[in-house]
Design brief:
This protein is an alpha+beta fold and 94 residues long. The chain has one helix at 2-12, and strands at residues 18-21, 27-30, 83-86. The mean pLDDT is 83.
Length: 94
């Protein structure tokens, strides 16, 4: 799954933003982007990039960042992974 996320991130730089959604459809931020962007998983102080935020894939103890969680891309045996969405699903472009 990590390889798929990385591949989508690389493609997103030329296509559009890649939104990450949790298993229940909750927004988990934009993959990559500026470390200053509020919504970016690269912002170490933002909701989706902080290693302390429960909604962050960078939190090693959180539901989406733990190597033991079934919902984490850091768990090689995860069964309920977040979904990367390319484009703007609200207008039907994916």
């Amino acid at each position: 799954m990590k390889i798929k996320l990385i591949a989508l991130l690389l493609l997103s730089t030329s296509v559009s933003a890649v939104e990450l959604r949790g298993p229940n459809g909750e927004h988990l931020g934009q993959l990559g982007g500026s470390k200053y962007a509020v919504d970016s998983t690269n912002n170490p102080y933002g909701t989706y990039g902080s290693k302390y935020s429960p909604e962050s894939i960078n939190n090693p103890y959180g539901n989406y960042g733990s190597k033991y969680s079934p919902s984490s891309p850091n768990n090689p045996y995860a069964t309920d992974l977040p979904t990367p969405i390319v484009g703007d699903p609200s207008i039907g472009v994916e």
